[in-house]
Design a protein that fits this description.
The structure is a homodimer. With about 170 residues, chain A is an alpha+beta fold. Chain A has a single domain, classed as 3-Layer(aba) Sandwich (Aminopeptidase), CATH 3.40.630.30. Helix content of chain A is about 35%, strand content about 35%. The first copy, chain A, has helices spanning about 1-5, 15-30, 35-50, 100-110, 130-135, 165-170, and strands at about 5-10, 55-60, 65-75, 80-90, 115-125, 140-150, 155-160. Chain A has a seven-stranded mixed sheet with strand order 1-2-3-4-5-7-6, sandwiched between helices. In chain A, strand 4, helix 4 (about 100-110) and strand 5 (about 115-125) form a beta-alpha-beta unit. Chain A is globular.
């Protein structure tokens, strides 16, 4: 675990993060080009509008290199529900606890901002099984499955987690 | 039903529709001020960006007055799924089949644009029971319920409908 101990987290997004996000998301091999574009667009929205964009970022840096990130935000028309829009770690840095650290720190920031529930949407495809297992290990449960949502044979799986008082004590 | 026969539908949004949408949504008494603002913001997005906004509108006019509207669009990162974001009819014009006409015409336009599935999200609160019954009468089925999503005691109910070949023949 020595590698993860040198990781620092930062919340402020910079123009350079457009390419960091693109590189991280592309490296995973899990997303189509149009999905990669959506990931970068959220950085653009944040840079252009600031907090009113509704997109909050958390970047993980290791020896000056951005190796992972999370993007979350409050869900419009809800009192205290948040979406985790993206969480990704560079292919060559996976399996070292970075994803869990990004997710737990996101939960802490969301709880601090008044959030009580977090939702994460992902695919039901078999190649997303490790992703779904990761969310389950982090305390998320499947709240809904929408058949063929993304494409024929590609379900939308909605995970949820209720934040407790313990998050504030972290 | 003579009233509905004089209704005309149009797709192009104009700046005046900002206030039409606000008046229609407010008249229903079903939405909080922040939700009304979101409805108007979608008109703003459409006026500012055109089709790339991803928001498509359908307005129902009766004797020169806009009495109802629907707003739908393709869901990012899906192949052919669409969201019906809003559908509302002025309080004093409800119960005359305008909602059904707006919904069926939206379905026809979505099918023509290549859409195969439509999703509608609404509240599980008891005051939304007539709304949920309306979607069921129009062929939508509950695909998922997310407990306490909007607020404690206020579930998110996701309705879905698979579009068939018949829509194109309409």
């Amino acid at each position: 675990m020595s590698n993860t101990q040198t990781v620092t987290l930062r919340q402020t997004a910079t123009p350079a993060d457009r390419e960091h996000v693109r590189a991280i998301v592309e490296s995973t091999g899990m997303f189509r080009p149009d999905e990669v574009d959506v990931a970068v667009e959220l950085v653009d929205e944040r840079l252009a509008k600031g907090e009113p964009s509704g997109y909050y970022f958390l970047f993980a840096e290791q020896q000056g290199r951005v190796v992972g990130y999370a993007c979350y935000g409050p869900i419009a028309c809800t009192v205290s529900s948040f979406d985790l829009f993206w969480i990704a770690v560079c292919q060559d840095q996976q399996g070292r606890g970075l994803g869990r650290r990004l997710l737990e720190e996101s939960e802490r920031l969301i709880a601090r901002a008044g959030g009580t529930r977090i939702y994460i949407e992902t695919s039901g495809r078999s190649d997303y099984l490790p992703t779904r297992r990761f969310y389950e290990r982090c305390g998320y449960a499947v709240e809904a499955t929408l058949a063929d949502f993304y494409a024929p044979g590609d379900d939308r799986v909605i995970f949820g987690k209720v934040l407790g008082a313990w998050q504030d004590q972290h």
